[in-house]
């Protein structure tokens, strides 16, 4: 008897919760970094992001989410189907109940603007810095730089 009562209460709470949410069929993306704003509440079809909990795609009506970006590629599919790729070094992604999404990157660049040979030079430089680092702090900073440079090279190739 108590199981049935509890199930009814859970169902009623779920129904009230879904009534409060105001999902939209449009997904508005705000994507910015310190160096540039790429999208300012623009309506898009899909966003794919790299996060430390795994890469995932975002569509309208996605469950609200907060995630930390890892170095990698953010892909944005416009409503007309055009796919644009951006390299991000780090940052955060927030998916809200109203289908708005904010991608805030520490640094971001259009993939087309990345020079592969410069990216490889950066990777080599940071690998050397890592191997010659003396303190734990210097090793940690160099390891982070190597991780970002490796993702940059992978994105540019």
UniProtKB/TrEMBL annotation:
<comment type="similarity">
    <text>Belongs to the ATPase epsilon chain family.</text>
</comment>
<dbReference type="InterPro" id="IPR036794">
    <property type="entry name" value="ATP_F1_dsu/esu_C_sf"/>
</dbReference>
<dbReference type="InterPro" id="IPR036771">
    <property type="entry name" value="ATPsynth_dsu/esu_N"/>
</dbReference>
<keyword id="KW-0496">Mitochondrion</keyword>
<keyword id="KW-0375">Hydrogen ion transport</keyword>
<dbReference type="Pfam" id="PF02823">
    <property type="entry name" value="ATP-synt_DE_N"/>
</dbReference>
<dbReference type="GO" id="GO:0046933">
    <property type="term" value="F:proton-transporting ATP synthase activity, rotational mechanism"/>
</dbReference>
<feature type="domain" description="ATP synthase F1 complex delta/epsilon subunit N-terminal">
    <location>
        <begin position="27"/>
        <end position="108"/>
    </location>
</feature>
<keyword id="KW-0406">Ion transport</keyword>
<dbReference type="GO" id="GO:0016787">
    <property type="term" value="F:hydrolase activity"/>
</dbReference>
<dbReference type="InterPro" id="IPR020546">
    <property type="entry name" value="ATP_synth_F1_dsu/esu_N"/>
</dbReference>
<comment type="function">
    <text>Subunit delta, of the mitochondrial membrane ATP synthase complex (F(1)F(0) ATP synthase or Complex V) that produces ATP from ADP in the presence of a proton gradient across the membrane which is generated by electron transport complexes of the respiratory chain. ATP synthase complex consist of a soluble F(1) head domain - the catalytic core - and a membrane F(1) domain - the membrane proton channel. These two domains are linked by a central stalk rotating inside the F(1) region and a stationary peripheral stalk.</text>
</comment>
<dbReference type="InterPro" id="IPR001469">
    <property type="entry name" value="ATP_synth_F1_dsu/esu"/>
</dbReference>
<protein>
    <recommendedName>
        <fullName>ATP synthase F(1) complex subunit delta, mitochondrial</fullName>
    </recommendedName>
</protein>
<keyword id="KW-0472">Membrane</keyword>
<comment type="subunit">
    <text>Component of the ATP synthase complex composed at least of ATP5F1A/subunit alpha, ATP5F1B/subunit beta, ATP5MC1/subunit c (homooctomer), MT-ATP6/subunit a, MT-ATP8/subunit 8, ATP5ME/subunit e, ATP5MF/subunit f, ATP5MG/subunit g, ATP5MK/subunit k, ATP5MJ/subunit j, ATP5F1C/subunit gamma, ATP5F1D/subunit delta, ATP5F1E/subunit epsilon, ATP5PF/subunit F6, ATP5PB/subunit b, ATP5PD/subunit d, ATP5PO/subunit OSCP.</text>
</comment>
<keyword id="KW-0007">Acetylation</keyword>
<keyword id="KW-0066">ATP synthesis</keyword>
<keyword id="KW-0809">Transit peptide</keyword>
<keyword id="KW-0999">Mitochondrion inner membrane</keyword>
<keyword id="KW-0378">Hydrolase</keyword>
<dbReference type="GO" id="GO:0005743">
    <property type="term" value="C:mitochondrial inner membrane"/>
</dbReference>
<dbReference type="GO" id="GO:0045259">
    <property type="term" value="C:proton-transporting ATP synthase complex"/>
</dbReference>
<keyword id="KW-0139">CF(1)</keyword>
<keyword id="KW-0813">Transport</keyword>
């Amino acid at each position: 008897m108590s199981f049935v009562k509890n199930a009814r209460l859970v169902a009623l709470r779920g129904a009230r919760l879904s009534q409060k949410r105001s999902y939209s069929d449009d997904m508005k993306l705000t994507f910015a970094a310190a160096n540039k704003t790429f999208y300012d509440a623009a309506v898009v079809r899909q966003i794919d992001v790299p996060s430390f909990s795994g890469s995932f795609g975002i569509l309208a009506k996605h469950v609200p989410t907060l995630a930390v970006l890892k170095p990698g590629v953010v892909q944005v599919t416009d409503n007309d189907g055009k796919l644009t790729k951006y390299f991000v070094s780090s940052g955060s992604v927030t998916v809200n109940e109203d289908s708005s999404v904010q991608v805030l990157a520490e640094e971001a660049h259009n993939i087309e603007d990345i020079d592969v040979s410069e990216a490889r030079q950066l990777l080599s430089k940071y690998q050397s810095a890592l191997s010659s680092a003396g303190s734990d702090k210097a090793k940690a900073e160099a390891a982070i730089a190597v991780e970002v440079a490796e993702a940059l090279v992978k994105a540019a190739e």
